[in-house]
Amino acid sequence: MTPPRSPGPGPANRPAPQRPWHVRLGAALPLRYVLRRLAGTAGLLAVLSAAVFALLRVAPGDPARTLLGTRSATPQALAAVRADHHLDDPVAEQYGRWLADALHGRLGTSIRTGQDVTAVLGDRLALSAQLVLLGFAVAVALGLPLGVLAGLRARRPADRAVQSLAVVTLSTPVFAGGLVLIYVFSLMLGWLPAYGPGSGGGGDRLLHLVLPAATLGLSVTAVLVKLTRAAVVRELAREHVTFALARGIPTRRVLIRYVLRGTVVPVSTGIGLVLAYLLAGTVMVEQVFALPGLGQLLVGSVTFKDVPVVQAEALLIAALVCLANLTTDLVHPLADPRLRTAAATAPADRDKGQA
Amino acid sequence: MTPRTPFRARRIPGVLTFVCGSLALILGVAAVAGQWILPHWDRQNLLTGAAMPGGGHPLGTDELGRDIAQMVVAGARSTLSGAAVVAVGSMLVGNVLGVTAGYLGGLTDMFVRRWADLLLALPALLVTIVVAGIGGGGYALAVAVLVVLTSPGDVRLVRAAVLEQRHRAYVEAAETLGLSRTTVMVRHIWPNVLPVVVANTLLNFAGSVVALSSLSFLGLGVPPGAPDWGRMLSENRTLLYDNPSAALAPAVAIIVSAVVLNLLGDRLFEAFSDRRS
């Protein structure tokens, strides 16, 4: 553990004048570390994309039949599909071609509707993105303050109350929570619309997204509360915090500069996790609130075995997950000086800071 | 062996624990025997249709005139048994991999950790939706996929616990005696790791109740006709005007089960960390 800066008055203790930003950034994030993380992400993406490609083979039966869907499986049609998708080539070659196409935005055509998959995804992306962003805002706005409160008041009534709330939200499946919210706020109180994306402009859309976003946000709040609480409790028990308080530094200042600062790394790790939960939650929320977003498309396509659409969505999700991981890895050394030396020598230890 | 000290007296008298334990027992009985006790849970009465509570139906009826209360009891089995399989299965996988990786270290450890990291980065529910849906294997496949995706959490937990034990004197003593590595792992280290594992299994159980009922809600879990809370909820959610409890009762059942399991798991964790300190 790093000792706290020595106390004492006078300008002698001021930090040295700051170096230019690119020098500081270079010290915090050595190029080798960044490159290694990028390579790791690329590797992860390669593994995941191979898994996504393999989905066509996971579907029971002949891939050509799967790709035909409900069209009649005449030998000519099957042969045409085989030729079209190069199904008789070696698997590695097929994977390479598929990946190259995907990288160029050519994701094939939907079996169900015959539409271009890229266009279909594009139509639905906006709604889901709005939903995830709003849900994320709800989760952060609730989870972080409640977690800090619970951590500061650990084992006291306020903490117990927050923890109970967290357990209940953690135990509530998204669809059940959404249903309860619809029942209370739409049917009993009549304040908010229950279903659909709304027609017309931004205001109406926003009104229709209030309940879905609240449902989505609440479903992941517990994760943030737990992580933040644990981090605050751990930081409060640290020697440098006790010492700072003993030195007579105002409590508020200690809390902000020492305790909360120390929670940045575990909490930002948690936020990366939350994104994964949010993506899964959107699927359920869109189903409950009849929102035509990516999640609804995914469920519809999965039940119909519309493999190209499912593959495209899975690839999109995989890319988002990799991106979130990469971002947390790159942000950590910026937030925590101790990880900078680690970053310079070894890959960041992902276990660090987890409860 | 580390010295055994008794569990420290709890700060709050165990009222909550007692309530949770009783509820867990009731849920267990409903899951095991519910369909024997109430053999007529699926008796239909199309003339009544969806009706509000009353007239011998404490929670009313659904669209086919089936009694909601009886269906909720009968539905305990599929939801809870699937989740129990996921929790226990992931515990087994987690223990085998976690103890081996933690004790052997080296390359084994690296591979196991990479594997766990990879799976942990994935959104479990989404992967299950995609694989179970495309694979078309129904409930069994969904449960199997969830086992694979839940286990890395156990692997990490067990591995960390083993690493903590790894350098204790009793391990060294056992090794000095010339015991085989398997014996040291299974007979000496594993019992000391077990309490955390049990607590975590309860938490996984709770999580799996939520996950499996979500899948059933989407129509990817149990087959149509089988009593299941997630499925009931999805079929009855259009009845919110006619008989709200048709949709709300299974929702409450899911939430209560998960809360009970979560609280019991948390309590066990606390008891264990109290003992250790």
Automatic annotation (TrEMBL), chain A:
Keyword presence, Repeat: no
Main location: membrane
Span of domain ABC transmembrane type-1: 125-328
Membrane topology: Multi-pass membrane protein
GO terms under cellular component: plasma membrane
Annotated TM spans: 38-59, 131-152, 164-186, 206-225, 258-280
MF GO annotations: dipeptide transmembrane transporter activity
Subcellular location(s) of the protein: Cell membrane
Pfam families the UniProt entry points to: BPD_transp_1 (PF00528), BPD_transp_1_N (PF19300)
Matches recorded under InterPro entries: BPD_transp_1_N, MetI-like, MetI-like_sf
Keyword list, A-Z: Cell membrane, Membrane, Transmembrane, Transmembrane helix, Transport
Family: Belongs to the binding-protein-dependent transport system permease family.
Protein name as annotated: Peptide/nickel transport system permease protein
Annotated organism of origin: Actinacidiphila paucisporea
From TrEMBL, chain B:
A Pfam family the protein falls into: BPD_transp_1
Protein name: Peptide/nickel transport system permease protein
Cell membrane as UniProt keyword: yes
TM annotation in the entry: 12-38, 80-106, 118-149, 246-265
SUPFAM superfamilies named among the record's database cross-references: MetI-like
Subcellular localization, as worded in the UniProt entry: Cell membrane
Coiled-coil region: none
Residue intervals of the ABC transmembrane type-1 domain: 80-265
GO biological process, one term: transmembrane transport
